[in-house]
Amino acid sequence: MSESPNILEVRKLNAGYGRSQVLFDLEIRAAAKGMVAILGRNGAGKTTLLKALAGELPVMSGDIRFDGRDTVAEPTEMRARRGMGYVPQEQAIFGKLTVRENLELGAILQGRSARIDEVLDFFPKLSLRLAQTAATLSGGERKMLAIGRALLGKPKLLLLDEPTEGVWVGVIEEIADRLVLLSREISLILVEQHVELALRVADHVYVMDRGTVALEGTAAQIRDDPRLLRYLAP
Ligand SMILES: Nc1ncnc2c1ncn2[C@@H]1O[C@H](COP(=O)(O)OP(=O)(O)OP(=O)(O)O)[C@@H](O)[C@H]1O
Ligand SMILES: [Mg+2]
Predict the structure, then answer these.
(1) What is the residue range of 76's domain?
(2) Binding-site residues, ligand 1, Cβ < 6 A
């Protein structure tokens, strides 16, 4: 496999909430294409990391280099405009609006919009639900809508915080298949509680423990590492 240049390089990242520090000298990288999985038990700092990457949380110190530019001081909108997509762990959709309205609004809010029908081709289930309010969607359909909205911004790097949380197992596979397809075109950073799934779909894996990287390697290396269970045990 040829080395693609990194779209994301994070060095010595320290971040947290007020005086409570959560991330400690954290270092990760992501290639221009492919899927990076971030694993770690509850409270390890996975969501905090994605927030810091997306610009929703100011960092205390460290470097974030995204698509060839130092991005640590860039506001969220600038990162989004430059191609960083973010699907937060909490629902990023408007429950009272229909699926179509959610997508239309997403297209307006994103500077570099893809076409809504491209998103519907990507998640055909959504095209059957266009007139339905988002609040009435199943867990899986909601996640598809949230991912679909992020795709409208034509991201080069997509940050996904637990896109299979609360999703029925059959639909989890469907979402995972789509993410694998996507990872052939762009860079994905996937935070995932389903460890088996993450190890199956990711190229590279970081295991976080107490706000820093405890283990890193290819999915095959991490799967065989006896320390994995220790870092994931509650
Ligand atoms: N807004 C906040 N203010 C203060 N502390 C916070 C805030 N959000 C998270 N934390 C703390 O930061 C730590 C890391 O939380 P974070 O949400 O990043 O973990 P996580 O790895 O995403 O966990 P989970 O798997 O449960 O989603 C936790 O100790 C949490 O209590
Ligand atoms: Mg989280």
Answers:
(1) 6-92+159-232
(2) 17, 20, 22, 40, 42-48, 89
Cα-to-centroid distance, 46 and ligand 1 (Å): 8
168-184 per-residue burial string, b: 16 or more CB within 10 A, e: under 16: eeebbebbbebbeebbe
The reply to whether 28 falls in a domain is: yes
pLDDT in tens, 159-200: 999 999 989 998 999 999 999 999 999 999 999 999 999 999
The answer to whether 57 touches 26, Cβ cutoff 8 Å, is no
120 domain-assigned: no
Q: What pTM, to 2 d.p., does this model score? A: 0.95
Candidate from 24, 42, 212 with most ligand 1 atoms within 8 A of CB, to mutate? 42
Q: How many domains does the chain have?
A: 1
